[in-house]
Design goal:
By secondary structure, this protein is of the alpha+beta class. Helix content is 45%, strand content 20%. It has a five-stranded mixed sheet, with no helix packed on it. Strands 1-3-6 form a three-stranded antiparallel sheet, with no helix packed on it. It starts with 10 loop residues before the first helix and ends with a strand. This is 3-methyladenine DNA glycosylase.
């Protein structure tokens, strides 16, 4: 069974944090701190609730000015990385909104080997111009973690974070950061830039299409950013986007021998296979499949999955795939008629029914 994310904040983690705090502040009340962390509600807290609870408890046990608290936490942070270390950024988000300079310096330090992407958004909302100006400076940093913060923190639809409605409506300032980072050599930063573009495409598809027109075929790295940043448009079958990637109507292709399970049990796989065939080379092609999931109201929810996008230099290609049908936290499956379809270059070629039994 997979470990729950909330359990990153374990007794072992709190013990390490307590010891480190005592090393950097000799009067730190370690035992009282641990007792305050592990309240009766602790087991019921999810990840971000635990993160916030730790941040608030830190505040109670560091009886200093905000700047002095941050100086201590900067030293403590050196021994913590990744998602677990985001308690420090959360502290800034909760207690640092009235001290812009100290908080900006703290988030710049804390984002290294972790990420300040959630915390920075509160500062964008309160000090938009000042924060964006600082993020433009971060975009020129020598450190990839700091550069990534500029793009990741300004994403209009960052998952798990508060949205930035103003940038969903008008992402002009986000594009200015993207322009500074679109030629970045770091894959870590490139992924973030692409994710920001993909966010923008959900509200302003034409702006992303214009970006593609101006930036495709300049470099291999920028082509990758454009493609990854267009994934929502490509999945939606946006014709203009597909054509920009050389994916035209695939009228020369036939689908042969489409075989699939007619009946599938919950928690089991829908197995399927098919052949693409053409009288000439198949060429550039994007192959996807879609599952139409039956909902409780007897309507359907369509989800598209990628199979392949490349150039096939032959006149036939066989694909063998499987898709597990199981309940998820975001979707429950219902017994009855479902559909599977095959999508070629954004166009649905064939759609067949199967039953969840």
């Amino acid at each position: 069974m997979a470990t729950l994310l909330k359990n990153l904040y374990s007794k072992v983690f709190i013990e390490k944090l307590s010891n480190n705090l005592q090393t950097n502040y000799k009067d730190f009340k370690k035992d009282e701190f641990k007792k305050a962390i592990f309240t009766n509600s602790w087991e019921n807290f999810e990840l971000k609730q635990r993160m916030r609870h730790i941040a608030k408890t830190l505040y109670q046990f560091l009886p200093f000015s905000y700047k002095e608290q941050i100086d201590i936490l900067k030293r403590v942070k050196q021994d913590f990385k990744g998602l677990k270390a985001m308690i420090f950024q959360d502290f800034v988000e909760v207690y640092g909104l009235d001290d812009f300079e100290v908080s900006m310096e703290a988030l710049e330090v804390f984002t290294i080997d972790s990420s300040s992407e959630f915390a920075i958004r509160q500062f964008i909302l309160k000090y938009e111009d000042e924060t964006i100006k600082r993020m433009k400076l971060w975009a020129k940093s020598q450190n990839e973690h700091i550069r990534r913060l500029a793009s990741e923190g300004s994403r209009p639809r960052l998952p798990w974070a508060i949205a930035l409605p103003k940038y969903k409506e008008n992402p002009e300032k986000v594009f200015k950061i993207i322009e500074l980072l679109k030629n970045d050599s770091s894959k870590y930063v490139q992924k973030s830039v692409a994710n920001s573009l993909n966010d923008i495409s959900k509200d302003n598809p034409n702006l992303v299409i214009n970006f593609l027109k101006n930036n495709l075929k300049i470099s291999k790295e920028l082509d990758w950013i454009c493609k990854h940043g267009s994934r929502t448009l490509l999945k939606a079958g946006n014709e203009e986007t597909l054509e920009l990637f050389g994916l035209k109507k695939a009228n020369h292709i036939a689908i042969l021998d489409f075989n699939f399970n007619k009946n599938v049990n919950l928690e089991d796989y829908l197995n399927f296979s098919f052949e693409l065939n053409s009288e000439k080379n198949i060429g550039k092609i994007r192959v996807e499949y879609a599952i139409y999931y039956l909902k409780s109201n007897q309507n359907y929810f369509k989800k598209v999955f990628m199979i392949s996008q490349n150039e096939i230099k032959s006149n036939s290609k066989i694909f063998v795939k499987k898709q597990i049908i199981k309940d998820m936290t975001t979707r429950k499956n219902y017994k009855g008629k479902h559909f599977i379809s095959l999508v070629i270059n954004g166009e649905e070629f064939i759609k067949k029914e199967f039953y969840l039994i």
